[in-house]
Amino acid sequence: MGFTTPSYSLKDLFARAERGELQLPDFQREYIWDVDRVRTLVTSVLRGYPVGSFLALDTRNAPMRFRPRPLEGLRPGDREPGLLLLDGQQRLTSLYHAFKGDGVIPSLDYLGRRIERRFFVDVRAAVSADPMPVESVFAVDLDGQVRSHFGPQIDGGITSRADMLTHGVVPISTLLWKEGADLLIDLAAESEDPGMREAVKAFQHSVLRWLPAYDVPVIRIDRETSQIGVGQIFAHANSAGVQMDVFELLTAVFASEDPEFKLSEHFAAQEARLREYPALDNIGRIEYLRALSLLLTSREGHAVGHRGDILNISLSQYLDHAEELTDAFVAAAEFLAERCILGVDQVPYSAQIVPLATILARLAEDPAVLEQQEAKDRLNRWFWSGVFGELYGAHAPSIRAGLDVTQVTPWVRGETEAVPRTVTDASFAESRLHTATAESGVYRGLYALLMARGALDWRTGKPFTRETIGELLPRFHTVFPREFCLAAGADEQLADSVLNRTPMGRRTDVVMENNEPKRYLPRLQSKSLMDDAEFDAMLRGHEIRPADLLNSDWEGFINFRREHFVGIIEYALDKAVERDVRDAE
Q: DSSP string covering 182-245, please?
């Protein structure tokens, strides 16, 4: 792979785009820059500041990998491009329309509504300070009315050349061409204001003289660069612009194999099945493709699922394995449901569902595997290791996902005794029970585990299952009201912690009315129609000692619960928890 970095003047870039020599790959999004970004870009060019480099793939005399399309507003015919612009679409489109033709830019306002604007420069304001003030560049609508904040006050707008001369403004679209020079000459010649003549002279010296030589570096990627290389380069270069994703890039790759195939339409059918399971709501098209890459590569060696690896997927591979992968995600949703993880707000880490689905797809190659208790236990241990070790809360979990697919699959099958890295990496400190917040895997994991271990709703005595969850609408609610805890001098963080929370139906916490336990328990028991023994057993199912609630014993409640939560987590991880908390701390 190689690249060169030539620079091109704006006129050269515009001409290449008009001829069709420079086009966009079809996967690029439409032009969506708002008018303020365009104004800033135009001002940067007029100041002589760099606007960054463009990134283009050299396609001369090479098979077309991506279906091309011209810049917005251009009609160059059927010519095949010699350069495909991978990064810089928004900037080049903005510059082309601002500095060329009628100067009308199809932009967006601050609310995202479609608008059309032309840009002008106020000559006197442009040379009033160094660097050129941003407000010297302003936008007008198609009726010539000034629409920029801090733009000049021009009654009646700018509708003619005479208006331009009267107010000392020049269209940006003329500055690269003879028309702009002529307008400035007339502006100086017809003005009776010596200050205006000096402003025109300064503008010609500081802006117009060198503007035709303004150029932009273009990183030209060699045509021999592999598809995966192009994808990786594109993904990194595009991260600072209008964010693209690998799904759109793969859409173009598949279109080059079969112009009639629409990846978005095919994926929509797969996604419809995923949306039947609320726990999968954060599994979108990128996560789906990452899982597919993990699945395909795991059958050949080490599983990998980075953006560049996804681009190695062929259309035939996608079509051959899409249904298999969707089935695996459904199996993952069932796995989660068995652990009372039914909604997306209960999922500890959606990122962990990607390797989970992939592992389940690999295990499905031999359906007898998960009929064995040891295999189930190992898969369970890996899952909770990721949750309580908080190993999928990292910024970039794709590396761990690949390792897990590679290591967990043979371990669960019993083909190796080598314990997967995630299982060995997982550790838990007791003090985390004090600090875990609602967005953490620990918080959501304990919420699910309590329900899965048989916790019942206090008011109805019903279990939390997929059949009852719509009726109960459970929450991870505080047992001792926060107000009571703070009034009693309890630590605020501890009052909000998982130790003071348990699954409750929505109507159950309404009955509690922020009272302390010894006041609300009798009322709840009377509504539950349970006798004392049954109600006490129900409380124990929440890892609560009944006497602590009947006496509103905050310290006894916390110490008992912390000890039991540690035991639950140790059982899930199959390893000891770091004991770093003293009782009543």
A: HHHHHHHHH---HHHHHHHHHHIIIIITTGGG-EEEEEEE-TT--HHHHHHHHHHHGGGSS---
- Name the residue type at position 509: D
Q: What is the pLDDT of residue 413?
A: 97
Q: How confident is the model at residue 1, as a pLDDT?
A: 58
Q: In which residue are the tokens 């021999």 written?
A: 224
Please tell me the distance from the alpha carbon of residue 175 to that of residue 164, in angstroms, as a whole number.
14
Q: Tell me, what's the pLDDT at 515?
A: 86
How many CB atoms are located within 10 Å of the residue 9 CB? 15
Residue 414 · residue 448 · CB < 8 Å: no
Question: Which residue, among 202, 208, 237, 39, has the nearest Cα to 127 in the 3D structure?
Answer: 202
Cα torsion angle, 6, 11, 17, 20, sign: negative
Nearest to 456 by CA among 376, 284, 340, 312: 340
Question: Cα–Cα distance between 339 and 555 in angstroms, integer?
Answer: 30
Distance CA 479, CA 458 (A): 11
Cβ contacts of residue 275 below 8 Å, gap of 6+? Answer: 281
Tell me how far apart the alpha carbons of residues 459 and 448 are, in angstroms, rounded to a whole number.
19
Q: Which residues of the chain have pLDDT under 50?
A: 239-240
Question: Smallest Cα–Cα separation from 568: which of 547, 541, 533?
Answer: 541
Q: What is the pLDDT of residue 171?
A: 97
Residue 535 CA, chain-centre distance (Å), reads: 45
SS3 114: strand
- Contact criterion met (CB below 8 Å) for 89 and 277: no
Whole-number average pLDDT of the chain: 91
Does residue 131 have a cis peptide bond before it, meaning omega lies within 30 degrees of 0?
yes
Please tell me what DSSP assigns to residue 146: B
- Count the Cβ atoms, other than its own, within 10 Å of residue 104: 16
Q: Locate the DSSP E strands across 49-145.
A: 54-58, 68-69, 83-87, 105-108, 114-122, 137-140
Quickly list DSSP for 484-529.
HHHHTT--HHHHTSGGGEEEE-HHHHHHHTT--HHHHHHHHHHHHT
507-514 long-range contacts, CB within 8 A, separation 24+: 507/459, 507/472, 508/457, 508/458, 508/459, 508/460, 508/477, 509/475, 509/477, 511/459, 512/477, 512/481, 514/481, 514/483, 514/484
- 3-state SS of 305-364 is CCHHHHCCCCHHHHHHHHHHHHHHHHHHHHHHHHCCCCCHHHCCCHHHHHHHHHHHHHHC
Beta bridge partners, 34, equal 108
Contact 558, 409 (CB under 8 A): no
Rounded to an integer, what distance in angstroms lies between the CA atom of residue 521 and that of residue 516?
9
Amino acid at 513: E
Query: Measured between alpha carbons, how far is residue 190 from residues 126, 178, 187, 238 in Å?
Result: 19, 18, 6, 48
pLDDT for the residue 396 = 60
